[in-house]
Amino acid sequence: MAGKLRVERITTDPDWYEPFKIALGYRVGDMIVLSGQAAIDREGNVVGAGDFDAQAAQVFENLEFVLSHAGSSLENVINVNIYMTDMTHFPKILELREKYFTAPYPADTIVEVTALALPELMIEIQAMAVVDDARD
Fold first, then answer.
1. How many independent structural domains does the chain possess?
2. What is the pLDDT along the chain (136 residues), one digit of tens a residue?
3. Is residue 2 assigned to a domain?
């Protein structure tokens, strides 16, 4: 029988999701599963209320930060689920994919939602990645 997979909670100091009773993510073997990252800074404040570009930049900063704590990076992201409150920003998503990811691009789902966890939030991205030494 194969050995058990190592399951480890990903934490940072501070962990801005702790007040919400949410894990930033988990490393399961060579796979990393992150909770959706929104435009919340490391002190727990919403960034860029009403400014999609500022919020998207914070979301990707959070993704990079948490992935680095898990032993990975944006180049190892294999799947994203993107939630937006206004699909008219879809053309910007194409720009963000090109800015933050490289070919082959991650598998991707985009959904428009009526609201996210806090009323000021406009975008949230949940990601799955592999650890740095697991990608071919």
1. 1
2. 456 888 999 999 888 888 889 999 999 999 999 999 999 999 889 999 999 999 999 999 999 999 999 999 999 999 999 999 999 999 999 999 999 999 999 999 999 999 999 999 999 999 999 998 765 5
3. no
Closest CA to 85 of 125, 54, 115, 120: 115
Coil/strand/helix, residue 62: helix
Supply the CATH number for residue 44's domain: 3.30.1330.40
| Region for residue 29 given its phi and psi (left: phi exceeds 0; alpha: psi -120 to 50; beta: otherwise) | left
